[in-house]
Amino acid sequence: MKKRLTAFLLCLLLTLIPAVTAGCSDSKVNSEEGGATAETPTADAAQDSAEEEPEPTATRLVKDRYADTDLGGYVYKVFAIPTDGHFYSQVAAGINEVYAEEMNGEIINDAIFNRNALTEETLNVKIEPVWGGDVGGMRTQLHNEVLAGGTEYDATINRMDYLGTNMQNGDLLNIKNIATIDTSDFWWDKNIVDSFTLFGTKLYWISGDLNIYDDFAAEVIFFNKQLCADNGMEYPYETVLDGKWTIDRFYEMAKTAEKDLDGDGKLAPKTDVVGHCEENDHVKHWMYAMGEKAMDIGEDGSLTIRIQEERQIRAVDKLYSIMVEQGMTYTGSSTEFKAGHILFLGTMLGPIGGLRDMEYEFGVLPMPKLDEEQEHYGEYISNGWCTAYGIPMTNPDPARTGIILDAICGFSNETLRVALYDVLFGAKFVRDEESVRMLDIIFESKMYDWAVDFTWGGSFQNLYNGIYNESHTSTNNFVSQTAKVMKVINKGLEKLVKSVSELDY
Question: Per the count of CB atoms within 10 A, which of 92, 119, 331, 414 is most buried?
Answer without folding.
Answer: 119
